[in-house]
Amino acid sequence: MTFKPKSWPRKLRSQEWYGGTSRDVIYHRGWMKNQGYPHDLFDGRPVIGIMNTWSDLTPCNGHLRELAEKVKAGVWEAGGFPVEVPVFSASENTFRPTAMMYRNLAALAVEEAMRGQPIDGAVLLVGCDKTTPSLLMGAASTDIPSIVVTGGPMLNGYFRGERVGSGTHLWKFSEAVKAGEMTQDEFLEAEASMSRSSGTCNTMGTASTMASMAEALGMALSGNAAIPAVDSRRRVMAQMSGRRIVQMVKDDLKPSDIMTKEAFANAIRTNGAIGGSTNAVIHLLAIAGRVGVDLTLDDWDQLGRGVATIVNLMPSGKYLMEEFFYAGGLPVVLKHLGEAGLLNKDALTVSGSSIWDEVKDAINHNDDVILPVERALTQQGGIAVLKGNLAPKGAVLKPSAASPHLLRHRGRAVVFEDIDDYKAKINDEALDIDETCVMVLKNCGPKGYPGMAEVGNMGLPPKVLKKGITDMVRISDARMSGTAYGTVVLHTSPEAAAGGPLAVVRDGDMIEIDVEARRIHLDISDEELAERLAKWQPLVEKPGSGYAWLHHSQVEGADTGADLAFLKGCRGSPVGKDSH
User: Can you tell me the mean pLDDT for 175-182?
Assistant: First the structure.
């Protein structure tokens, strides 16, 4: 830690709007007073923007209005001036074609909401998958003091005595219906048990993974990630974060002070230990790009390779986030990493203390939920980055969610040109496929879907499921839900819609994967591959207007975070000019 707090008091950026007696200041300040704010609130105290991703159409974040009130209470207590600001909320379970298409739009909207308004510090009130990375990206671009408060996971679901993990059991039960092992009526009955309280997915899906990433990066108070949404301690966390952001503004403790290369290394290793979502790869790459940290897929592979997966949660294990919290939550995992020499202990956090000071006294209350390393789910967790002639810029696979016997495999390709082609063919009994084949899905990357939807964990054909087979090797340029599982190779780069080698795979081609060797290979000659690529014609048409056009024109590859090219690595002035 080398951070040195700035002196206080001093003039804050909000005083560009509210300080003085000029006509322009009275314009800004006078209109704010129509809400009943006393004049002395504009005296130079920190103005804290509560960037709230609440929306009725983002059910995971449906309780954030209540949390915002607790944040406000904390800000008032610490002598700040809280203002709640609704921001773009990209719901994973509502937005079409995919929430991922709108992550960058949300980040841009948040960035400009922070830059263009009188905000000295920000509380990032998030929950659903894309809301956490998008707000962190926006905060990184403005570099205004910011702290993350997540909404927390749902309580456990139960169906006929079995734990039901949101998302994970959706995939499991839908496959059981196709296999004839579960009726449609039973599936509908199970639906009622999947989401039984406010909050995000109760598995170690993308929402809980990104909450953990925020905490491991140092951008949230210690213990934030796992507290259930309906637990009173979640509201306490919100209030304490409201108090803390005021002091962060006084100290001028910014995202760039916290999100260093060492902090990203901590987050990558944490992702391996918790069995986190593959989506964390693409989000951390994008956040790093915004804050100016050089982070690559190679960093993901190298830093995560020696990390054991010790958190026994679905989809990799058997428990849910509720048990993870009761066991001690993420501080226990971080303490384990520190004791194993896998944590940059001096990394700074929003508390003003080092990450090690925050977690060194954590206690594991259940070693069947947070496992000792000798009983780890896998000794080589993290994210495996595969490269070869099929993925020159890389593809990712989550070893803890894969079938060990498929981690080295050679099989015949069964190709789906896009998601509609997959849906048209997969249930056809005449489809020439068996469990030894490799399912290949094209044109579902950042440009292709568009937006890179979570369709990479293609459901298996019924004819295979009825044999009792539950996993096959699947390869695509898409993403998959963090709640999903299987031997699934994702984010294949360059994507098919951009003319990557995936675009020219044909039915019957042989494909090899070797996870230990980090290899993915299409078994054709270099000459034939070059000939196929020379003849390739894109199937995906470029949109003619609107955000879809901007996205398609500017989105980069999954290997660098799929951010918009013109936004990456540029932090502009945090204060706009007055137009009055």
Answer: 90
What is the torsion angle, in degrees rounded to the nearest 10, for the CA atoms of residue 32, residue 34, residue 38 and residue 41?
-10
In terms of DSSP bridges, do strands 384-388 and 473-476 run parallel, antiparallel, or are they unpaired? unpaired
Rounded Cα distance, 12 and 145, in Å: 12
Contacts of 180 (CB under 8 A, 6+ apart): 466
SS3 state of residue 510: strand
Tokens of 353: 């203390």
The DSSP call for residue 251 is H
- Whether pLDDT at 569 is above 90: no
d(CA 279, CA 259): 19
Query: Which residues neighbour 124 within 8 Å (Cβ) at sequence distance 6 or greater?
Result: 51, 132, 135, 136, 139, 146, 147, 148, 149, 219
Q: Tally the C-alpha atoms within 13 A of residue 126's C-alpha that lie toward its C-beta.
A: 40
2, two tokens: 């080398």
pLDDT tens-place string over residues 431-458: 999 999 999 999 999 999 999 999 999 9
Q: Residue 208's closest CA among 266, 276, 148, 259?
A: 276
For 381-404, write each residue's pLDDT tens digit.
889 999 999 999 999 999 988 999
